[in-house]
Amino acid sequence: MNSPALPRLALTAGEPAGVGPELLIRLAATPLAANFVAITDRGLLERAAERCGTSIQLLDDDGADIQQRPPGMLRVKHVPLGEPEVPGHPDPRNARHVLATLREAADGCLSGRYAAVVTAPLQKSSINDAGIPFSGHTEFFAEHSRADVVMMLASPELRVALATTHLPLRAVSAAIDAASLERTLRMVHQELRTKFGFADPRIAVLGLNPHAGEGGHIGHEEIDTIIPVMNTLRRQGMQLLGPMPADTAFVPAQRERYDAVLAMYHDQALPVLKSEAFDRTVNVTLGLPFIRTSVDHGTALDLAGTGNADPSSLIAAARMAMELAAHRTSS
Q1: What topology does CATH give the domain 1-146+288-331?
Q2: SS3 (DSSP) at 168
Q3: How confident is the model at residue 84 (pLDDT cuts 50, 70, 90)?
Q4: Domains 1-146+288-331 and 148-287 equal at CATH topology level
Q5: I need a surface site. Which of 81, 86, 104, 182 has the fewest CB within 10 A?
Q6: Closest listed residue to residue 152, CA positions, set 143, 164, 162, 167
Q7: Does domain 148-287 have CATH number 2.60.40.770?
Q8: Which of 240, 321, 316, 327 lies closest to 279, judged by CA?
């Protein structure tokens, strides 16, 4: 009896002058049981392998399934660079290359060629310097697939979704309205069921203000917006805890009560997650019609070209993509 085919995971290298290409080489050197397909320039990977001092077998991707992958083997969907990379120095002339790799990965996932996409970090400023409006991976994939999305960062011990993402603090309160909060909670609930396998997920909702507003004495957002939305969704059967004060929501006794947390803004919960599991934290985009995971760090231009970048987060992202893909296949 033949072994089942390995999941085909698309890998994008992100910024050519960053650590992404080297991280892909390090990932390919692991024994992870996946059919990795690197969507990038073949020469870029060859030079990255040389900088890492790692032997790598690069094969053109023919679309065929495989049952085994020896460590060091990596299939390649060649997307040529605009200009040769200089580690540590992003070149806007490579912006179109970066976007082409993302487009190929998204289209491949939508068509079923890939089971998931795992992304290495890119340099947003370099793409914008090329005259191309660009705000990030998440927004690109959302627009390309016409999907509403929610950002989640997850470690093996903790999952944190965000009601707002990269906003200045002064803009957060106005961005949390009833419609957007309800949409976000519905999406987190649905994705916890369909992608993570929780039959009846328990979601802890953080308050916006200290002490979750303390009954209106420290802000009214909880009373005016958060609690009414939670009560509406509770009546429809969702298990929602809170709103919980953020300063006590992550103590061990509380964490046993929920499967995921919805934080109101970026730095409300992510410092907790990253301080305890930085090398195991994965960025997951909820709401897409395909699985997308990513590292939780940037391009590390100061390390690019040294071969010393830590691949732990990319390895964790690949592992989670494999787990989510396996759950989708079995459900």
Answers
A1: Isopropylmalate Dehydrogenase (3.40.718)
A2: coil
A3: very high
A4: yes
A5: 86
A6: 162
A7: no
A8: 316
